[in-house]
Amino acid sequence: MNELLFVVNPVAGHGRSLRVFARLRAVLERVPGVRCVVWHTRGPGHARELAERAALEGYGRILAVGGDGTVHEALNGLMALSPAARGRIAFGVVPAGSGNDFARNTGIPRDPAALATLLASGPASPMDVGVVNGHYFANVAGVGFDAEVARQANRLPKFVPGALTYVFAALWTLSRYRNAAVRIVLDGEILERRVMLVAVGNGAGYGGGMRICPGARMDDGTFRVVVAGDLPKPSVLSLLPKVFSGRHVEHPLVEVYDARHVRIEAERPLAVQADGEIVAASPLSLEVVPSAVRVIGLLGRSSDATTRDHAATAWAPRSADEPPTAGTSPAPGPGPVVERPVADPHQDGRVDTGRRVDIA
Ligand SMILES: [Mg+2]
């Protein structure tokens, strides 16, 4: 008997997760040899506890039903296990939250039949996990503007739908945010900048389809680091829509690096988000844990190569003329990624717009 253990967050996606899961379960129960075991979370932090317990009780396929917050908690539960114990588990997600970026980053299909097949018998591939100040994350950790947006988004009333939550929160935050001077150490190389934000991507996106770290792969043992420099507010407004396609990195004040170890210190305490949860304040240290977990999905390519936005349309009724299974069809990339070597950021002819930071 193939047992699937579901950790269901019943309040994810403003309560939509229960409907999403009921539909999926109806499909799964018609699959011979599959048995669904369902545990519901009872509050913040419970998904972490349940995921760890499920692993200790010997379940081999553990699926989080919810959004990125639920995935974040479940992943932290699995990371409490030994590497050997984690290696026996296939972890997956049923996207049912207001932000489903982990599902997007791992190429999870939204079609219930395709998803049921994948969850029941699809292969699991090694996936890297990031760690920031002791908190594990799947998608993106960030400091500065995006963390402040996450803080505001978490405070918005729950009737604001998915991706719009972050747009409202971003506009609200923009009206009062000041860029900050930071010192960034990327695998030992130092950058000093005045920044709007620094995003450290294991996966490419967050916030319901924002590809802040385009081209990030969850299986290459390195972070994609995006440093958004001292952008004036009008530039932020014009760049914000481009984050959904990843084309914001074409702006001359946006730099892209790859690094395995990142340390960031700031002139004032800045909020730090990981998978949209506020986890700490600066200074922050980040590290990749390569091949930390095995994940059910379609890794092995740029994690933002999946088709866009499950969040706004997740599990909406599909008409007959829609293309089949979103997550399995190839999609055009997000446009060119401006990559620069980490070695010496001053040799590319660009002006260092930061100023020196005296870090106590
Ligand atoms: Mg990577």
Automatic annotation (TrEMBL):
Task: List the cofactors.
Answer: Mg(2+)
The record's annotation in Gene3D superfamilies points to:
2.60.200.40, Probable inorganic polyphosphate/atp-NAD kinase, domain 1
- According to the entry, every stretch annotated as the DAGKc domain falls at 1-136
Q: Where are the compositionally biased (Basic and acidic residues) regions?
A: 341-360
What top-level branch of life does the organism fall under? Bacteria
Q: Name one GO molecular function term.
A: kinase activity
What keywords would UniProt list here?
A: ATP-binding, Kinase, Lipid biosynthesis, Lipid metabolism, Magnesium, Metal-binding, Nucleotide-binding, Phospholipid biosynthesis, Phospholipid metabolism, Transferase
State one Pfam family annotation.
Answer: YegS_C
Q: Where is this region: Disordered?
A: 306-360
- InterPro entries attached here? ATP-NAD_kinase_N (IPR017438), Diacylglycerol/lipid_kinase (IPR005218), Diacylglycerol_kinase_cat_dom (IPR001206), Lipid_Phosphate_FormReg (IPR050187), NAD/diacylglycerol_kinase_sf (IPR016064), YegS/DAGK_C (IPR045540)
Q: What is the similarity comment for this entry?
A: Belongs to the diacylglycerol/lipid kinase family.
Under which name does UniProt file this protein? Diacylglycerol kinase family protein
What organism does the UniProt record list as the source? Answer: Geochorda subterranea
